[in-house]
Input
Amino acid sequence: MKKYDVVILGGGITGLSCAYYLTLKNKNIALVEKNQIGSGASGACDDMILLQSKKPGKNLELAVESLKLYKDLAANINYDIGFHNRGGMILIDKDEHMAFMEDYVSKQKDYGLNIELIDKKSVKKRHPFVKDNIVASTYGTEDSQVNPLFTMRAFLGSAVNAGMELYKGTEVVEFNKKNGFWQIRLSDGRELEAENIVNAAGAWASDIGKLIDIDIPITSKKGQIAVTENIPQLGRENIWSAEYIISKLNPELVNASEKHKELGIGLSMSQTSDGNYLIGSTREKGNYSKGTDTEVIRILVNQAVDFFPVLKNIHIIRTFAGFRPACADGKPIISEVQGHEGFYIAAGHEGDGIAMAPVTGKLISQMICGEKTSIDIGELCLERFN
Ligand SMILES: Cc1cc2nc3c(=O)[nH]c(=O)nc-3n(C[C@H](O)[C@H](O)[C@H](O)COP(=O)(O)OP(=O)(O)OC[C@H]3O[C@@H](n4cnc5c(N)ncnc54)[C@H](O)[C@@H]3O)c2cc1C
Output
């Protein structure tokens, strides 16, 4: 039976970040991935490190800290992670959304974000192709982006170079605790032993919880995305519609059809470094079907064309869907499970898992090494749901 300090379950960006930060602390690691590295949400998502999308609170604190870590990674890790700081704008096209957005921006400013509301003329200056009946926009300088695939490769490459072992195409079928160590039986018959386990299985984290009889309230919030051919930049900043933010934070304010609301549709647009725009997205609770729906993609693309009529003749070259790991209260679980010493959960980041990957990996590595965490994350324990 092979022995490790830590066995990580899940080869998405969260598990890989945990692996990276744990190997920096000289831990002997194995990572078990049921399918392929990045085959979960981290390989089928947008690429934004968003501060603007969060209300002041723990998620924003995590994202701010993670952005610092991303800047550090971009400067120091031996791989290109595709980090860019382009800023972001939340476009407001309905008068009835103004009051909500004014209050939202003022709270974020009070928190210390570099964000302001700009008028129609200033919006047009930054994004000359935006539709004429825009009302206003937020403008924040700190929102950034990374390439999630590059970032996963960077974490993986660094961790493997530091000795991490990879078990792909297999999953845990049984855990036993013996003499203080976790014994792990994999579906291909191999057995591993570890002092610590990290459940970083994204939208499937609850399946792993069932193996030790704990209830982890995480489910999928599917998101569909359309990818355009590569085109010149429409403007420097990445874009969301106010409706996308409001549908997440205050859905009753959204005046849309029932189908639209059920799908949680709103506009997000970011441009990759190759020039393709990612047009999203939906928030479909409990949906684990991998396919995209032509009607839904049409709604998303029509929204983009409504905001940027110049996109009318641009081709969509592919579509995809990913499963955001959504926790019941919208915050991730980053903690050791009480009564199961050495069993950690790092999952449930919903639409912020790319943004929060570095900070999550760092916090897990601090906990496993018995250090004080750099952020107080008491409120991110599993037991908050008891
Ligand atoms: C449409 C869309 C847009 C998004 N946009 C953004 C964005 O702009 N910014 C942002 O920060 N976030 C965004 N997200 C969210 C982000 O993608 C996720 O929060 C993040 O990728 C979650 O990473 P993860 O590693 O926790 O989970 P995943 O990437 O899902 O990884 C979990 C892994 O665990 C594996 N696994 C499952 N069961 C087992 C098992 N039993 N044993 C071993 N392995 C197992 C899976 O195969 C998978 O590879 C978006 C998501 C979607 C869907």
About this structure: Residues 88 and 237 are 5 Å apart (CA to CA).
